[in-house]
Amino acid sequence: MTTIGIPRALLYYKYYPLWITFFEEIGCQVVISRNSNKRILDDGVRNTLDEVCLPCKIFTGHTINLIEKGVDYLFIPRMKSVETKKSFTCPRLVGTSDVIYYSLRALNPPTILSPYVETYTHPLIEAYLEVGEALGVEKDRVEKALAKALEVQEKFTHFKKKAPSPHQIMKKLSTVNREFAPANIPPHIEDEGSDGKIKIALVGHSYVIYDPLISMNLIDKLTSMGIEVLTGEMLPEELLMQNYQEILKQMHWTYEKEILGAANYYLKDDQIRGLIYMSTFACGPASLVGEAILRQARKHQDKSFLALVVDEHTGEAGVMTRIEAFVDMIKRKEGAAHGN
Ligand code: SF4
Question: For residue 328, what is the DSSP state?
Fold first, then answer.
């Protein structure tokens, strides 16, 4: 059976149900790289340019892991636009397949399937027909496979909005689980999301905040400190879009609109005590989005705000110290507000 390697990095965190379902439906076997670890990071850093962002370096490491596994093809689509309006993704996401090809030539990588996903100007099916043609799969089968894959993707989106905590989302991502039926979503667990806990919102790219290595397991750390964590993925799309437009009338980066919308929504939410924006060093869009969130946060003096920028040299101890200080500050404010 033909094997397709999908790196567990970047947009895997958004589209893994769609991609895996599609390939399985056309009769391929999907191989996902292992969860991020130090070796993957080191391989990525050694084999890519210094100036790229950390998620792209990690992506390179994941691709090497798949090359070592001996997959027949790598799937690295050029995700140019994912909306039907004039909105785009970061140029680095569009160029990843080229960067991988030229960076890893010496490792003799397998053929890279890299169709243009450009839904602003072309129907999505065109990208998948291109993949089908490269693999010798007939049009009919590709169309049915994509329809099924989109269904599963929709269930994943729905699951994220209903998940009782980001842990549930992380678990799906780390175990590549594609069971999203409501019965599989645990009811609100007593010790998660229960009343009385301090609520902190965490916003940033899904491949940053859900990657255990890049985020340094921030969600787990906050939870172990007795904090209830909420992320942007848990909010409905319409809310994200409405809220980003309150800050910027127009922005042409799809995923950044979501981050901005989530930040603005949580800053206005009376139940939220603090907001953490996590980004990575050398991220182009973050320089604009981070500034916009900071300005917005200044208007909400009742909320504490922390911007965390990480790269491959960031020490976990330093991040932990900042997180502990941030949580302490919120707890002290809470205590003062209640006369303690
Ligand atoms: S948005 Fe930032 S972190 Fe994401 S790929 Fe682009 S530069 Fe890297």
Answer: H
Predicted confidence (pLDDT) per residue in 158-191, tens digit = 999 988 889 889 889 988 888 886 545 544 433 4
* pLDDT tens figures, 201-258: 999 999 999 999 999 999 999 999 999 999 999 999 999 999 999 998 888 899 999 9
User: Ligand 1 centre from 119 Cα, in Å?
Assistant: 20
DSSP 88: B
Whether 318 has a pLDDT exceeding 50, the answer reads yes
Please tell me the residue having the least CA distance from ligand 1 atom 3: 283
**pLDDT of 188:** 40
What residue spans define the domains of the chain?
3-156, 168-337
| Common-topology check for domains 3-156 and 168-337 | yes
CATH number listed for the domain at residues 168-337: 3.40.50.11900
**Taking a C-beta distance cutoff of 8 angstroms, is the pair 325, 333 a contact?**
no
Q: Selecting from 1.10.530.10, 3.40.50.150, 3.40.50.11890, 2.60.120.330, what CATH number does the domain 3-156 have? A: 3.40.50.11890
Distance of alpha carbon 131 from its chain centroid, rounded?
24
Taking each helix axis from N to C end, the angle separating 139-162 and 166-175, rounded to the nearest 10 degrees, works out to 150
Q: Name the residue of 56, 99, 209, 257 whose CB sits within 8 Å of the most ligand 1 atoms, as the mutation to test its pocket.
A: 56
* Residue bearing the CA closest to ligand 1, atom 7: 283
